[in-house]
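Fold sample X.
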Amino acid sequence: MYLLCFNPRRLAVGLFLWLLFCLLAFVPPAEGSSQEPLLEAKSAVLMDALTGQVLWSKNPHKQLPQASTTKITTAIVALERGNLTDLVRASQRAAQVGEAAIYLEEGETLTLEDLLYALLLRSANDAAVAIAEHIGGTEENFVALMNQKAWEIGARDTHYVNPHGLHAPGHYSSAYDLALLARYALKIPKFREIVATREKVIPWPGKPWDRLLVNTNQLLWGYYAYPGADGVKTGYTREAGQVLVASATREGRQLIAVVMHSPNMYQEARALLDYGFQHFTRQVLVPAGELITQAPVKGALVGTVPLVTASPAVAAVPREGQVVWEKEITLLPELKAPLKKGQKLGELSFILKEAEVSDQKITVDLIAARDVPRRPWWVAFLQGFLGVFNFPWIRLN
């Protein structure tokens, strides 16, 4: 027989410390902290959704397994090449895909819209394959379309082998590319609507009940709910660890946070978003319709055309301190009449020097402020005639 002896005071102190540890370990980080994030994720990026500027990064171009964040590009290709009302029939191959699923059966038919909800909320791998085969004819053809689209968007550190993100050699992305792809996808209204949805009911043919899809992104609901959260996609495999592409909008400003191989993707994404909203604001560098320069035009009755900004140039800038922007004007070579009002003739770029923020280049189109008609033939003839007889006091533009 053994007699268990203990000190009540030590036991009470131990219990108190254990409870305190639990509270500190699981309470979401406080909002509004302006301190620069200290993340354990292998790779991370904070991007301004409007401008595409990277506001904070850690190994942004490191190629890593991306897990189910793959489905962002799957959805982009499906939305751009398919119709939401398309009827999609699940193949045996789709029905047999493992892990996260809505348990499609071979021959089961759902609309493309329902499958997109399953893809982006439930992260259903069977839905991914069904969509891929419907749009591409085969899964392999669809993956080729995914790689082509990622390249067009500018994702140079991304390569796909499948449409769902289950681990496979040669299947990878980077935090910067995931932010870039999410920024592109969020411009598609239906994508934006789906990823902001907390739950959705879709049919389950042959069953006496429907399917309830709950968004896997807990920034939208529950314990980790983040004010203003409106997307985007979670991911997890053993090789990729926790991966999260998150977006949130406050006071008209949308930020995109990406963490890859994170020990706690929600806490670290929240820390990035807090930092961005607290530490940065938006600045209008030049309004729309601002006269920038007069450009020479060949073959015109009037030899120049005024160029104005087609839209405002807006940048994300630190709330504290001043930044100096360098202007750069690029015009199309040899402008020739006729020109139409509103025609793009060049670009105005703002480049940030000595920036604490990386990738700072804001570009806006320059357009013609008025029509520029071609010079009539008789004016050209008269100019040549006057030139031959050297009448310097008479000039025609």
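Fold sample Y, listed below.
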Amino acid sequence: MSRRNGQWQNCKLIEQNEQAELSRDGPICLIVAPTRELVTQIYHQAQRFTHNTGITVARAYGEYNMHLNRSDIRKGCNILCACIGRLMHFIEEGDVKLDFVKFLILDEADRMLMDRNNSDILKLFNSPDLPDKQNFQMLLFSATLRDPIVMDLTQSYMKPDKCVMITATCQSNKRVIYKIYAVPSAPAKFKYLVKYMKQITEENGGEVPRTLIFVNKKVNTDRVAIECTTNGFPATTIHGDRGQHLREEALNSFRSGKTRCLVATDVCARGVDIKEMDHVINFDLPTDKDGFIQRSGRTGRTHKGYAMSFYYENDDKSMATEIARIISQNGQESPAFLDSYVQESDYNFGQAPDESAPVEANGYQNNNNDNGYGSGNGNNDDEWDTPSAASESQQQQQRESSNHGTSTATQAPQQSSAPVIPDASADDDWD
């Protein structure tokens, strides 16, 4: 709906286009999403809906050649799908005009309003060229749009007397079947992962099921992918440090089924829709309940799906109550150790920990003071990482060996006092 001269009228882009009333000077509908993958997905869906209608669709995000991006927008952008960083750059440079916006849509609104760059979103809301809030419609979408901070922010930029909220009675999708496995150490996850992959592959008639595996640090995507690949479960990776063409190549390979496993940071946690996604694995648990719901929600979208998580008590205790509540609200029974403490008997998947702390198959010492695998405060993909030169060299050797069908995963990494280097956010699309 749009408001003109105080009267609400239907805003029908196709009819306006046929009557030559549709502006060509800027977007009528502006859709903002947090990641390039999500923007691209929305863009392709918009192209389908507007096929042969004369309505133009464009996109804007980081690593898209600036000159080509400008050229595409100038060809027509009745609907513009964008990441906030590139969008604000184009607005400030005068390449995108906001005067004619009738619809402003924020997908995964809670992440964008609460994330480190919500200042860019607020800058968009406060743009002098954006019509008054009485003259356009704002729509916020998210599966986890409940935080009071988000609602307080929106009250300032939305029409409080004209708000409609559509909420679900249960936060979690009822089609998602939750599984939680306690692990004795962070490195033990590698062994447990291989065992679980063998189990679900056997249950799937010997064919590796399409599986999305989440980690919290970009540096660990290759480690997990190598472990999967060398054990017969070919995997590719996606994270913020990969070039856009490599990210698209990995996602397309996964979507097509050519590659059956995708190891990803939270760049794939929200909104990404992949058919026949039967299994999601939280190799690392996220640090908040919304992340857990969003990741798990990549499966079970059209039929029953499984969301399995490894629970390492030293790192994940703060999440135990929330996870137990989510599982219980979904009508399922949560493991008893989430309400108390993990006992040795709870390590019922894979082998129980050995007191002598043997070297695991991935080359890491099986103990709780693990320096090779990120733990504690370093769980988030936004955190800084401390990989040594030796560990980076070993990863390269593992990649080369996996290309020749061999594995060096049993070689333990050497420690080094290499300086701390930043491990940037999984989502570089803000830039």
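Sample Y note: The chain is about 35% helix and 15% strand.
Also: The chain has two domains: 2-162, 176-403.
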